[in-house]
Amino acid sequence: MSCNVRHLQAMRKSLLETTRVVVAVPEAPVFRPTAEEFEDPLAYISSIQAAAASSGIAKIVPPPGQRVTQWRQCFATLAMDRLSACINV
Prior knowledge:
Elements: H1 3-17, E1 30-31, H2 41-53, E2 59-60, H3 68-77, H4 80-87
């Protein structure tokens, strides 16, 4: 029996023995803070940490009217140790 034939037989056997496991992935929680809650984004993240940790990820939608540059600048100007302390890295 040639090497190619054995290789094909092994692949067929592998495909026949493979079982698929379908796992439903829960949706990530979505948080919509008010303008007051989002004045300090890191404090807000700290306040939702327990709820977000259960899913491993969360989405935060900034309040309407907030300029993206405002809150991006907030994160960009923070010291790394403050950020890591906030999210417990």
